[in-house]
Task: structure prediction
Amino acid sequence: MNLGLFTLLVPLTVAQPEMPVMLPIAPLLAAKVVAPEGVRVTALPGAPGSKVFDAPAVFGFRPGYVYRLELANLPFRPGQTLYPEIEVRGSLVMRPGMKYMDYPIPLTFTSEDLERAINGVAITKVISLEDPEKAVPAEARADAPIEITTDSEDEAVKAATSSGRLVAIVRFGDRAPTAVELLSRAIPGTVLLPGENRLRSPAAPPVIPWFTIPLFDPKLGPREAVEECTLDGGDRGLRLGIGPQGKIAGLDPTDVGVEFTMGGKRQVISSNVVCICVPRFVIQRAETVPAGLRFATGPGVSHHITAGVEFRARNAPMAEIGREKPIGMLAPVKPMTYVEVDGTASFVASTRPSILGQVEGVQITGSLVEPEQITAYPNVCPLSVTKSVDPADNVKQGDVIWVTLRYINSGNRPISDIVLSDSLSGRLAYIPGSALSDRAANFTTAENEAGSVVVRWEFPTKLLPGQRGVVKFQVRVR
Result:
């Protein structure tokens, strides 16, 4: 046998780990130029194929290239023109039903922006796709995005990458590029103009190849894109549970928690997870004055965020036991857990007592109190909750959607003292007065740490076997 050949062939027969399926990346990044009324926008200026459009206008840019636009007919500045530079570093990761041209990045040029640029101030706007888990709890629209001031372009880039996925950098000032510079930025096949639905292949390769190659860990595979969609419902942070005082704990923003009493015992379950795909872009802004001093300023129409987000530390729902290690403790017993599987359900709990010892004839016993995790199986936990949103597709910033929670007792015993709580994401704003319930309930709201609210229903009557109910309310997508 040829051992050399054998060793070469063996690796080919070893099964490789299955990589996660990557969602398709949009070939273009949509961009909407928003400027004062009357401003004319020229795409591909200085090139034979240049065209002029009235603002606002939506373009499609291929990632990996640097573009120039021409802004003319500026307010109170006849004959003046500006040439903002747009460095496109990425695009959206598509979800089913999403049309990437419906979610453009905001290329906003306010009257103050234009005036400051004409007076020699260099302005940089770093645009990122915000991570919903780190969302700023502020109202925003696609044409009026959240704009946060920073001290420099480097700081703006750091802030953008730490809070989401950087997609573009816009730079503009009073300097007019040369004809050669304009022509170098006007690469055929890279800009989809308004009214067009097809784009031919680019005439040159990307000039920013680093940002167009999706790097990933060779073992773990590519990182799943999370910035496009807000996940709502379920129990995705600290685990939900009933604490020693009978109160719910672990209710994080986006969580749904349902408390109830069955057989004299207080329990808690959650709902399914829904996905609300509404990408939101945030701008980090920096300015450099002609003298070289750097400072940050915010236009009057922007949201100036000066305060940090309030953080609250929460402990897991369990009773803590304060104890000192006794001298001469004998026969310590470790806490143990067991898992019982019954059909499609599972039951996890801890043995009790979890701490046992004896010192000089005195027995020391301590108990560890933990929430029990039970799946929604009729013989174990008959109460189940389902969450849905309407509409589920083609939602934009500023739209109002209905959130519906349906619950049912599919067991053979009554359930009492039901409390249903939904802690909303910072991207969702509850619309006061919209809460509805088909059963008598006491409804309240309370602020949460995400800058939104917890909507809460308390049902005073029992839910008998086979009975069901529904609550619903409206939220506005920020």
About this structure: Residues 229-276+377-477 form a domain with the Immunoglobulin-like fold (CATH 2.60.40).
